[in-house]
Amino acid sequence: MCFLTRLYSVFLLTLVLSACGFHLRGALDLSDDMAPVYLQVGSVQELGREIRSLLQANKVAVTESFEQARTVLALSSESRQNRVLSVDSSGRAREYLLTYTAAFSVQLKPAKAEEMSMQVSRSLLFDENAVLAFANEADVVYSELRRDAARRILQKLQAYSARQKQ
């Protein structure tokens, strides 16, 4: 009886999740009119590596030649910022908001490039007894934010692709 109850629970959970529109994140779906993609990195090397890796993992053709590309994804800048989110009773910072911003443009040849930006944030607790650990953890969080920004940039590229299909 326990097995049937579990099976029924899984079935019910699946039904509820599908009814609300939930679906697993699948592969990147770019229209054939957009591939191959030329990735212009400039000084944004780490983000460029993340995006190139995601494009290749999703089997999207990436070209090294601007002339052969149908789509140009140009990464123009990135910035990291932090600000105090909360303080303790003596006025010392206790929590910071770390923000990663990337500016980029998408150009579907021969149209004009469209400028866009992506901003992702995450909070981080500060412990005054572990300042070096905080600095290391902040670096790790910024790396995660960069990966998240890369995924979101490709989602914007996918939305741009869907818009071009219409």
What is this structure's SSE topology?
Blueprint: H1 2-19, E1 37-40, H2 45-57, E2 62-63, E3 71-87, E4 93-108, E5 114-125, H3 131-165
Parallel strand pairs: 1-2, 1-3
Antiparallel strand pairs: 3-4, 4-5
Structure report:
This protein has a single domain (27-165), classed as Double Stranded RNA Binding Domain (2-Layer Sandwich). The chain has three helices and five strands. The chain has helices spanning 2-19, 45-57, 131-165, and strands at residues 37-40, 62-63, 71-87, 93-108, 114-125. Helix 2 (45-57) crosses helix 3 (131-165). The chain is flat. A five-stranded mixed beta sheet has the order 2-1-3-4-5, with helices on one face. The model has no long low-confidence stretch (mean pLDDT 85). 40% of the residues lie in helices and 31% in strands. With 166 residues, it is of the alpha/beta class.
